[in-house]
Design goal:
Number of helices of chain B: 3
Helix content of chain B: over 70%
Strand order of the largest sheet of chain A: 1-2
Strand content of chain A: under 5%
CATH topology of chain B: Helix Hairpins
Structural class of chain B: mainly alpha
Order of helices and strands of chain A: HHEEHHHHHHHHHHHHHHHHHHHHHHHHH
Oligomer: heterodimer
CATH architecture of chain B: Orthogonal Bundle
Radius of gyration of chain B: 17 Å
Shape of chain B: elongated
Distance between the termini of chain B: 54 Å
CATH class of chain B: Mainly Alpha
Strand content of chain B: under 5%
Largest sheet of chain A: 2 strands, antiparallel
Largest sheet of chain B: none
Chain lengths: 648, 100
């Protein structure tokens, strides 16, 4: 069966799982619920493998045309099909989403085992897989938007999963609202695309965008406007400045959700969308600059906050924001392939880190504060070793996956924009520091928890096996790019080349420009590694060698420390600058004036007028025959006189 | 010969008396009689026109009106008797349940 023509099966499988569990799961035991959820995801993964194998058997470089299953909307000149397509970019996303998704499903059967919302959890998780697959398989912007909104919905549902906790529902609302801003930008961008190109199909829009004249640098032409609007959407979904605030709060959700949605897959949808639209971005130099600067600023900004957080999941959350910044930095300097590469390796190691953190929390009986951990290395060895692999990967240790992807990004950034590049290197050092700080605080040093109350235990097989698989991927996931270091072919870039063919030009142009500095560039390859090493040494010195230093350091630098610990007080600033005025306007203008006076006033006014009129008219109807007769006579007299008068 | 207009004026006077009596009298029986008076005033007008125009339709119409008036008298008097039986009054002021 040519599965490339039956792509709809992939998203429908998890949808069936979600529906089955959501509708009938209430009567099923947990084993059946997890069997349904796991089998639907496994089938989707196998389907993805089949798609990929068939795709790879095509002559290299060919991209099959989009398959349209039915016309979804047809109105005037507008037409949007339920159409799907597979290309090299989709293939990578498919494998990441279904592969990591499957592992996290397996992990969840262990992690969520004692939760009363077991069925609801798996139903949501499967629904998420459905929307995510729609998002990456869509062949036009509108269908992509459906998936985009769908994953946002699932994100909201899963952040607020523990809905009895006020903070969880608040976090869910925050995520939803902040994403509305981004989605509004995305939707405007989509509308502008339709206005400009008269179509929303990737196959129509992107080649034409690539063929259009590039907007002048520093000017906002149509393409730049589209690109900037799309990037607003991406910044919302992928938690970039200034819309990142929802992601750290999203950690209120169960840890597997943080791993799947808020680290590995959904938050990378923004990167995917930007890469998908790279033809538009490349002809919009100003938008590219914005993307690069926002990405770099986010990478650095979030990394600094991550330095002092004490909640193990919060550290990882800010780390995710920071790493997403790297991906946008890559896109902004035109290295879209590197961005996707980092997206993939990040899905592996950040998924792993979150799952491992979940395993630590599981072992500690729900404790998330790293100050109350310590010395767990011997107690939960599998978790420790796998988490160490993830940390080495994210810190960019040579040979690990993160090294290849991050190195490539920083390399490209240094070539195109040295300032952003060096800031990226600085962020890489910070990354290494906060990750090793996490490791040292959690697994090394003295045991700072109450041993009588906390029974530290290794997690069950269903959790450790996905951890191990992800650990292997975190190590080996970047080896596709390894030959590039020795001057060979970067297989990952080579693989993506047919999709990013138009993107290849500026990158090579940049290389050609700077070919004179090749020697320096070669030397720069090691720079992120050195930065990472310095971060590691600093963390080791502060948290292993002299554990009393951090406290005194925090005291002597109390100003900056408080600033970082308070997350730059961005939440408070937003609260004061945006939320409060909005609430004030809503209450004092919209509620008391517009709603109560204008709207209610109109409605009540109409009612009062009719009632008063009726009241007056009611008196005419006395029930007295004689008064009726009088009216009739008067009427006759009036009409007769009128008639006579008109005849004259 | 008496001119046509005399008959018509008489008819109008009788009709006006009927209207006035209908409006100002309180006893239902009187009200009822004023209706009969109005009907007969109209009958007179019909007959007058029939005669002056030399056509029969007016006189035929009068027969119909007389039949209807007879039927109305039968039904109306029955209603009046029932009203009196139920309410012990024939004052129209007290019979105002039409508004409910």
């Amino acid at each position: 069966m040519p599965i490339l023509s039956y792509l709809w099966i992939l998203p429908v499988l998890p949808l069936l799982g979600a529906a089955a569990n959501g509708i009938f799961g209430g009567r099923w035991p947990k084993s059946v619920v997890s069997a349904v959820a796991l089998s639907s995801t496994t089938l989707a993964f196998l389907g993805a493998l089949a798609v990929v194998s068939q795709f790879l058997s095509l002559p290299s470089g060919t991209i099959p045309p989009p398959v349209s299953y039915f016309t979804w909307i047809s109105a005037g000149g507008f037409r949007a099909d339920f159409a799907m397509q597979v290309d090299h970019l989709t293939v990578i996303m498919l494998l990441v989403v279904t592969g990591v998704g499957l592992l996290i499903h397996i992990y969840s059967t262990g992690y969520m085992h004692d939760d009363p919302g077991y069925r609801r959890f798996f139903s949501y998780l499967n629904l998420f897989m459905f929307f995510m697959l729609i998002l990456i398989l869509a062949a036009n912007y509108l269908l992509m938007f459906v998936g985009w909104e769908g994953v946002g919905l699932c994100s909201y549902l899963l952040i607020g999963f523990f809905f009895l906790k006020k903070s969880a529902t608040n976090a869910g609302n925050k995520a939803f609202w902040v994403n509305r801003i981004g989605d509004f930008g995305f939707l405007l961008g989509v509308l502008l695309i339709f206005r400009t190109f008269g179509s929303l199909n990737f196959a129509d829009v992107l080649p034409r965008a690539a063929g259009m004249a590039s907007d002048a640098p520093g000017q906002i032409g149509t393409l730049t406007a589209i690109a900037l609007l799309l990037f607003v959407g991406a910044a919302g979904k992928s938690a970039q400045l200034p819309l990142y605030v929802w992601l750290p709060d999203a950690m209120e959700g169960p840890t597997p959700v943080s791993a799947l949605i808020h680290a590995a897959t959904m938050v990378t949808a923004g990167v995917y969308m930007v890469v998908r639209s790279h033809a538009i971005f490349l002809n919009a130099p100003l938008a590219m600059q914005v993307v690069a600067i926002v990405g770099c600023a986010t990478a650095l900004f979030a990394a600094t906050i991550g330095l002092v957080q004490t909640d193990i999941k919060k550290v990882l959350a800010y780390s995710t924001v920071s790493q997403l910044g790297y991906m946008f930095l890559a896109c902004g300097v035109g290295a879209f392939g590197a961005g996707v590469f980092h997206l993939m390796t990040h899905a592996f190691f950040k998924g792993l880190l979150f799952l491992a953190a979940g395993s630590v929390i599981h072992a500690m009986g729900g404790e998330q504060d790293m100050r109350k951990m310590g010395g767990l290395r011997k107690k939960i060895p599998v978790t420790f070793w796998t988490m160490l692999m993830g940390t080495l990967a994210i810190a960019g240790t040579p040979g690990f996956s993160g090294f290849f992807s991050k190195d490539e990004i920083l390399d490209e950034a240094l070539k195109v924009n040295p300032v952003l590049g060096w800031l990226g290197v600085l962020a890489a050092g910070l990354t290494s520091f906060y990750m090793f700080r996490l490791i040292f605080l959690t697994f090394f040093g003295k045991e700072r928890y109450d041993e009588h109350h906390v029974h530290v235990h290794e997690s069950p097989k269903s959790m450790t096996i996905p951890l191990s698989i992800l650990a292997v991927l975190s190590v080996a996931g970047g080896w596709m790019a390894a030959p590039a270091l020795m001057g060979g072919v970067n297989h990952f870039q080579h693989f993506l080349a047919p999709v990013l063919s138009s993107a290849a030009e500026p990158a090579t142009a940049a290389v050609a420009e700077s070919s004179g500095d090749a020697g320096i560039l070669q030397a720069l390859v090691g720079v992120p590694v050195i930065a990472g090493l310095l971060g590691f040494l600093l963390a080791w010195w502060l948290y292993i060698k002299s554990p009393e230093t951090p406290a005194s350091l925090a005291e002597s630098l109390s100003g900056p420390y408080k600033l970082l610990y308070g997350k730059y007080f961005i939440d408070e600033i937003y609260q004061a600058a945006i939320v409060r005025p909005l609430v004030w306007i809503s209450e004092n203008v919209l509620w008391h004036v517009v709603d109560e006076r204008a709207i209610d006033g109109t409605v009540n006014g109409v009612a009062t007028v009719s009632r008063e009129t009726g009241d007056r008219l009611r008196r005419a109807s006395t029930g007295n025959i004689r008064s009726y007769a009088t009216w009739i006579v008067l009427g006759v007299v009036v009409f007769t006189s009128l008639l006579l008068w008109m005849v004259d | 010969m008496v001119p046509t207009s005399y008959y018509l004026v008489l008819s109008a006077i009788l009709f006006g008396l009927g209207v006035v009596a209908f409006i100002f009298k309180r006893n239902i029986l009187t009200v009822f009689m004023s209706i009969e008076l109005m009907l007969n005033a109209v009958n007179l007008a019909f007959v007058t026109f029939s005669r002056s125009l030399g056509q029969l339709q007016g006189q035929i119409f009068v027969f119909f009106v007389i039949v209807v008036a007879a039927a109305e008298a039968a039904v109306g008097l029955a209603i009046i008797i029932l009203i009196h039986r139920n309410r012990r009054t024939l004052d129209v002021e007290n019979v105002d349940s039409l508004k409910d």
